[in-house]
Specification:
Helices cover 38% and strands 27% of the residues. The chain has helices spanning 26-34, 55-70, 82-90, 93-96, and strands at 2-6, 12-17, 20-21, 42-46, 52-53, 74-78, 98-99. The strands form 2 sheets. The protein has a 5-stranded mixed β-sheet. A two-stranded parallel sheet has the order 3-5. β1 (2-6) and β2 (12-17) form a beta hairpin.
C-alpha cells in the first residue's frame, strides 16, 4: 500500500510504503511522484513499515531519484525498518540515497 502527502508549499512530498515494496505497488508509487514538477521538491520515502523489498522496488527508487533530480530535487529514504535497511545496504543504496 502506498500513501502520499504533499505539504502546503509543494516543497516536500512524503510517500509512505506499506509492508511489501514490490512490483504490485509500481503504478501507485509512480503516480505518487510523477505529477510533481515544482523545482527543488524533496521526496521523502518512508520505509518504517516496510519488511520486504524486491529488485523491482529498488528500480522504482532509482526512477524516483531520476525524476527528483530532473526538477533539481532530491530523494531521502526515511526511517527504514531494520529489514529494509539491510536490503538497501546490501544493494549499496545507502551510497546512492540519503538514509535518515
Amino acid at each position: 500500500m502506498i500513501q502520499s502527502h504533499l505539504n502546503q508549499d509543494n516543497q516536500e512530498l512524503t510517500i509512505s510504503i506499506g509492508e511489501r515494496f514490490d512490483y504490485s505497488v509500481h503504478k501507485a508509487f509512480r503516480d505518487a511522484y510523477r505529477e510533481i514538477t515544482t523545482p527543488k521538491t524533496h521526496i521523502a520515502i518512508n520505509l518504517s513499515s516496510t519488511r520486504y523489498i524486491d529488485s523491482s522496488a529498488l528500480g522504482m527508487l532509482l526512477l524516483a531519484k531520476e525524476h527528483a533530480e530532473g526538477i533539481n530535487g532530491k530523494v531521502t529514504l526515511v526511517r527504514p525498518s531494520e529489514t529494509a535497511f539491510k536490503i538497501l545496504k546490501l544493494a549499496n543504496f545507502d551510497q546512492l540515497f540519503t538514509v535518515t
